[in-house]
Amino acid sequence: MPTSWSDSIEKAPTGGGAGATSHASRSTYVPPHLRNRPPSADPPSASVSHAGPALGNGLQGYVGSNVGGLQSVVPKQDRIASGGGRGGGVWNSRSVGWDRGREKEANPFQYDVDSEAAFEAQDSTGINFDAYEDIPVETSGRNVPPPVNTFAEIDLGEALNLNIRRCKYVKPTPVQRHAIPISLSGRDLMACAQTGSGKTAAFCFPIISGIMRSNQSAPRPPRVPRMAFPLALILSPTRELSIQIHEEARKFAYQTGVRVVVAYGGAPINLQLRELERGVDILVATPGRLVDLLERARVSLQMIRYLALDEADRMLDMGFEPQIRRIVQQMDMPSPGVRQTLLFSATFPKEIQSLAADFLSDYVFLAVGRVGSSTDLIVQRVEYVLETDKRSHLMDLLHAQRANGVQAKQALTLVFVETKKGADSLEHWLCINGFPATSIHGDRTQQEREYALRSFKSGKTPILVATDVAARGLDIPHVAHVVNFDLPNDIDDYVHRIGRTGRAGKTGLATAFFNENNSSLARPLADLMQESNQEVPAWLARFAARSSFGKNRRGGGSGGRFGGRDFRRDSSFNRGGMDMYGGCSMNNGYNTSSGYGGGYGPPVASAWD
Ligand SMILES: Nc1ncnc2c1ncn2[C@@H]1O[C@H](COP(=O)(O)OP(=O)(O)OP(=O)(O)O)[C@@H](O)[C@H]1O
């Protein structure tokens, strides 16, 4: 198993700082398309230490260290002679990106087997992507490239195809079927698809494939010592999500010659600087840490060809927008049209779409399912629970769940609360009542956060109490139940929270505790449940009718989410009419009314009208 975060810090060489040993032996840079040689072509290195496990490709000698929870690989020999990369390197085709003579790439697939085994007995559903087959898809924009049905139809490159097979991805999910050809054609993209439907691969595959294909005619990075020049930047709102995207991207990029590095706050910057100095093609980062690296002149964005924003609506809302504008518009990043920009989320309120247009050029809008809807793989329940009764109600749920669990095991349960203090206190209360719980929120140190997540994932503490820091993007297999102990104020936050279960074609359960304090959410919640084919309790429908009297559903906390789809098709925006964008196409006949819009007072427009 990987060593711990603190272990890696302890073991890390001190004093030298980033790159202190790297100059003398920094290797030369080689374009990624030349890096992906068959293993047999790589001469074995005399200096390799064969400490690590034997890998499928015959490569050995890796030392896995867990930097901030990620299984970052620090090749043993690299501590003696640093493998270089793009940072200050010289263009030369003799070497490779993962300079195979010196620096070996660890097998990112090796830990999957262990973690899966622990849950095998509990997992009865398996991956069932057929569940997504009937999902309606809308695309709009000029000349939208057609979707594909299989990975074989897309020329992603042999090494990447092999990794897709290693990931056991048999066929692309709907968002992948559409988004990958669009991205491969070079178009900018704003993509909205349900939680757990495979958006990470949808933006990673084209980026990795594009970098693999790049040839020597591509512009060379300037020679600036100790400065990294990534070709792709993937930004995400939370540290844990960046770590996860990095882990995923490393699997997809294994043995492609494309090097992926992560940088996020709360973890020692020196270790991240050292990784960057070894060379970086794809940088996965949180905005704050990236700004720090840019200010220290350790990263330049001038070579960026791909910019991806995961959870793009969150990245462009009030909290992050200034930082994103700074990174994208005020540093040295190529402008829209020169770089390719990919925006992904499960929710895309109209006003955020409008903001996002500043970052895009002639983009395709893709919606898989209704914008901001949740998948009907998640069974949603809402229960009326007074504030004072919430704890005992939760206890009842957990007892029942334990009784029904396999071998009396507690199923993984994620409990969302509103405040950090509330998270600490509920965790404590659960523990003293015999329920192994941990918590994750912004007041915990990064080490504590990562430890909590690992402990939850492994089933050691099968209850995780969380604030919204865990609401978006986290792909934790086997989460059976999400409890909204405190409901959020915004329906989009609810969509992301419940999306931590019912992922990758599996089913899940989401229970919400509702009371008078949540009245403003009644209508959007009832609407969302109805459109996801969930049973709406009569009392909630009454709340919804009361709270929305005189308003249409767009007035809810979602900030216009239900106005969804491509905001360019809104008459107020689209002065030139539909032709400006070349029209739109809709699949699966989803423009039928399907009962949506009835039931809670004044008729409302479907997102697809
Ligand atoms: N084609 C595929 N076949 C099988 N599994 C897949 C495929 N694509 C993705 N997955 C798996 O589905 C799960 C969910 O994917 P991912 O985390 O990318 O979802 P997402 O759409 O980004 O969700 P969220 O909106 O919550 O961020 C992951 O475990 C991923 O490995």
UniProtKB/TrEMBL annotation:
Q: Which InterPro entries match?
A: DEAD/DEAH_box_helicase_dom, Ded1/Dbp1_DEADc, Helicase_ATP-bd, Helicase_C-like, P-loop_NTPase, RNA_helicase_DEAD_Q_motif
Which controlled-vocabulary keywords does the entry list?
ATP-binding, Helicase, Hydrolase, Nucleotide-binding, RNA-binding
Q: Residues in domain DEAD-box RNA helicase Q?
A: 149-177
Database matches in Pfam families: DEAD, Helicase_C
Domain (Helicase ATP-binding): residue spans on this chain: 180-366
The answer on whether this UniProt entry bears the keyword RNA-binding reads: yes
Top EC class for this record: hydrolase
Q: Where is this region: Disordered?
A: 1-53
Question: Which top-level group of life is the source organism from?
Answer: Eukaryota
Q: Which family does it belong to?
A: Belongs to the DEAD box helicase family. DDX3/DED1 subfamily.
What is this protein's record name? RNA helicase
In its UniProt entry, the species of origin is given as Handroanthus impetiginosus
